[in-house]
Amino acid sequence: RTPNYEMFLVMQTSVHIIFVQTFCVYVYILSHILLHYYAIMNMIIIDFSVIFEGLDESVALLPRHDERRVKTQLILKARIGKIVTAHLSVFNGVTTVSSVYGLPLVYQVSFSSIAICLMAYQIAEKLDNGTVDILFCLLGIGSCLQLWIPCHVGTMIRNKAFEVGDAGWTCGWHETPLGLMIRSDIIIIILRAQQPVTIKFIGLPHVQLETFSSCMSSSYSYFNMLRQYS
């Protein structure tokens, strides 16, 4: 008696556990954390849009040590400080995510194209025989999704980070005398926002939709090669 059934049972159980862990734990937590920082950048953009709201522009023309001018400047500094703190938390948070999830993402990006290729090949072989392999179809869709989700969220964060710089430029600082009080701070934030906020790790390309497209292109090339020589 051979232990084939027991071996296949263990393999099937392992696949189920990996599937649940991937979509219910790993991908969910990663996307949830990244979307949290996406929401923070949305709040930064909102803060920029109301940074001069409720303040008297005429105080900018008062002497530097005037009480009303000092009070207004403190309010502006507090508002810009809130923006800076939130902006730095995004950079630090994404850096932490990169260090924690770096190795799994390297494995995920490196081997997804091969896995997707083999699943597509199995599906194509079954279709040639007039049958549809539902299991491999589901696994293929799942393999594409587990790569697409972090890449899509990574692209969202990158684009939103650039929007923070645009929000700083269009907040109206050049249209009001109050802008003179925090002009240098806003310029620093705009310059800082030009640095892309991306998930990166040694041996890992930036986790963006461009990476997903590259992996799918490689997978399709492998698939064509297998079909050609099979």
UniProtKB/TrEMBL annotation:
GO terms for biological process: signal transduction. Keywords: Cell membrane, Membrane, Olfaction, Receptor, Sensory transduction, Transducer, Transmembrane, Transmembrane helix. The chain crosses the membrane at residues 7-29, 106-124, 131-149. It is found in: Cell membrane. GO terms for cellular component: plasma membrane. Its main location: membrane. It is a multi-pass membrane protein. InterPro entries: 7tm6_olfct_rcpt (IPR004117). It comes from the Eukaryota. One of its GO terms (molecular function) is olfactory receptor activity. Pfam families: 7tm_6. This is Putative odorant receptor. It comes from Sesamia inferens.
